[in-house]
Amino acid sequence: MSTIKFSSTEIEQLVTKIQCYFAKELDQDLGQFDAEFLLDFFSKEVGGHFYNRGLFDAQAVIAAKLDNVSEMVQEGISEIEKPIS
């Protein structure tokens, strides 16, 4: 898997969220550099876990949708079957 990369806008938004969290919850000021460093650390060390969970969740949703499609196809075919004796 390649490294998770964010756009500059996403980085700005995430850094701001990290800084706000530290200020509100920990009563600490966190500079831009430190917040970006923390973001990089979490992206590299735990980002893959979140990414994989997202893939797992997406796979479950797609599988459920495919089951629905399969049922619809079976029903549709049953409706157009010709009776045979």
UniProtKB/TrEMBL annotation:
Domain of life: Bacteria
Pfam families registered for this protein in UniProt: DUF2164
Entries under InterPro entries matching the protein: DUF2164
Protein known as: DUF2164 domain-containing protein
Species of provenance: Colwellia psychrerythraea (Vibrio psychroerythus)
